């Protein structure tokens, strides 16, 4: 399978394979993400890599990685217990606690790895809005990198197994 470049400047960077499908990552724009490998596969860097790492950290169930038992959050496991009795305010609190866990993980990692490019370092993340249908929870999350790149991405989370 061919690998195509997502960005033209890979100097002094590590690259990941892009698992999110988006039209493009444009500063200060809202983009809907879906999880799928591209055809052909693409490398990902910059704000796109930051969004991907943030999402993986947020949605990994804490304790599910035997080698890294503290990695992840309780966000998804709490949602899997059912959302019918959760008020909008309770959901906001649930997200904010999970988001704080993610921010702490990133701050520690970035402090220990100062050579990470600033457009791949997390400055802030916040929930802009959310909506739910019978089978999907859509989160609009604003991400800002240390370099000042801003992106709002819509993360669809299936509510059924």
Structure commentary:
The protein is 28% helix and 28% strand. The chain contains three helices and nine strands; from the N terminus they run E-E-E-E-E-E-H-H-H-E-E-E. The radius of gyration is 16 Å and the shape is globular. With 161 residues, the chain is α/β, with parallel strands linked by helices. The strands form three sheets. The protein has a four-stranded mixed sheet, covered by helices on one side. The N terminus is likely disordered. The longest helix is centred in the middle third of the chain and has 25 residues. The protein has one domain.
**Contiguous uncertain segments of 5+ residues:** 1-8
Number of strands: 9
Summarize the biggest pleated sheet.
Answer: 4 strands, mixed
What is the domain total for the residues? 1
The percent of residues in helical segments reads 25-40%
The neighbouring-strand order within the major sheet is 4-9-8-7
The portion of residues forming beta strands comes to: 25-35%
Please trace the helix and strand order, writing H or E for each element: EEEEEEHHHEEE
Write the layout of secondary structure elements.
Layout: E1 3-4, E2 16-17, E3 20-21, E4 30-32, E5 34-35, E6 41-44, H1 46-59, H2 75-80, H3 88-112, E7 122-132, E8 136-145, E9 150-158
Parallel strand pairs: 1-6, 4-9
Antiparallel strand pairs: 2-6, 3-5, 7-8, 8-9
Structure summary:
This protein has helices at 46-59, 75-80, 88-112; strands at 3-4, 16-17, 20-21, 30-32, 34-35, 41-44, 122-132, 136-145, 150-158.
């Amino acid at each position: 399978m061919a690998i195509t470049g997502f960005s033209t400047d890979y100097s002094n960077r590590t690259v990941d394979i892009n698992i999110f499908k988006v039209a493009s990552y444009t500063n200060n724009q809202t983009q809907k993400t879906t999880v799928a490998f591209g055809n052909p596969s693409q490398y990902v860097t910059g704000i796109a890599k930051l969004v991907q790492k943030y999402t993986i950290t947020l949605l990994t169930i804490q304790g599910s990685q035997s080698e890294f038992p503290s990695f992840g959050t309780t966000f998804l496991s709490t949602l899997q217990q059912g959302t019918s009795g959760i008020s909008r305010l309770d959901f906001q609190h649930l997200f904010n606690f999970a988001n704080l866990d993610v921010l702490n993980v990133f701050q520690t990692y970035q402090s220990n790895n100062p050579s990470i490019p600033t457009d791949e370092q997390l400055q802030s993340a916040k929930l802009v809005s959310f909506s739910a249908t019978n089978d999907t929870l859509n989160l609009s999350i604003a991400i800002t990198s240390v370099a000042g790149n801003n992106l709002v991405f819509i993360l669809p989370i299936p509510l059924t197994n």
